[in-house]
Amino acid sequence: MADRSTLPQIDGMQVFQPATTRSVSRLSVVTGVTIGLLLVGLGVVLAYLALATPFSQAFIPEPRSSGIRVVVGVIGWTLLIVAPATAAIAGVAWLAGVAERTSMLRTRPHPVVGLSRVLGSDYAAATNVRLPDGRIVSEIIVGPHGIAVFEPAPPAALIRVEAGRWELRVGKDRWVPLESPLERTVRSADRVRHWLTAEDRGFVVRVHAAVVSSDDLIKRTANCAVVTRETIPAYLNSLPVQRGFTPERRAQVVELLRSVV
């Protein structure tokens, strides 16, 4: 299970994000960089031997040399030409791999983090929540309204509706079936509702569903709202307050979310 990463807020909303399951040590980075530099250095040394020293002349066949001597000379010259470039390329590729792995391990803050101070300390959010059934819910925000489940829709350029069916573009002219973002979000909300019910905490929490998108193709329904990232605070404020969802009960739900992120 991934380590939990909590972004503490002084006056704003707490946000719980899963931290990366991989870690990189300074020793592994230093080792990778050292190997890469050694390979590049080896390439430079071999190139120097081949071009700037008499070493290469040892592989020049003398007149009337035997066939074996000629073959050895050809192999030697081939190695002198190929080996420096091979070592240098391998070293550069090694260094690039170290840089790529290191950059991939950096945890990027989720967009919901930007709402932390706007919403205030009455709210708490969790991202990439793994439910007991294995389903991942993109965003959950707990507040006086109960719980709001948010699922981002794919970019507008990648989705379309043909004959009532949603499709996702996966190539220049290739489209594959796609679950409706609205239906997907409603199902995520239902899974969250069932999960909380199974916990049997003695109270019922209202669960709302909303798709995060600015695409006019996606229209709100009776069961699912459509909001942009900027209008999430206004949407939450528009939801009716659940009177029985006291701060103590909210704290219980927040702790439950914390345990699965």
What is the topology?
Blueprint: E1 4-7, E2 14-18, H1 26-52, H2 67-104, H3 116-119, E3 124-130, E4 136-143, E5 146-152, E6 159-162, E7 165-169, E8 175-177, H4 181-199, E9 207-212, E10 225-227, H5 232-238, H6 247-260
Parallel strand pairs: 2-3, 5-9, 9-10
Antiparallel strand pairs: 1-2, 3-4, 4-5, 6-7, 7-8
Helix pairs in contact: 1-2
Put the structure in a nutshell:
The chain has helices at residues 26-52, 67-104, 116-119, 181-199, 232-238, 247-260, and strands at residues 4-7, 14-18, 124-130, 136-143, 146-152, 159-162, 165-169, 175-177, 207-212, 225-227. The protein is of the alpha/beta class and 261 residues long. The protein has a seven-stranded mixed β-sheet with strand order 1-2-3-4-5-9-10, with helices on both faces. A three-stranded antiparallel β-sheet has the order 6-7-8, with no helix packed on it.
The tally of strands reads 10
Strand order of the largest sheet: 1-2-3-4-5-9-10
* Count of all domains: 2
**Intertermini distance:** 9 Å
The major pleated sheet works out as: 7 strands, mixed
Shape: elongated
Helix vs. strand class: alpha/beta
Poorly predicted tracts of residues: 1-10
Number of helices: 6
> What is the share of helical residues?
40-55%
Radius of gyration (Å): 30 Å
Overall mean pLDDT stands at 82
Strand residue content: 15-25%
Q: State the order of secondary-structure elements, H for helix, E for strand.
A: EEHHHEEEEEEHEEHH
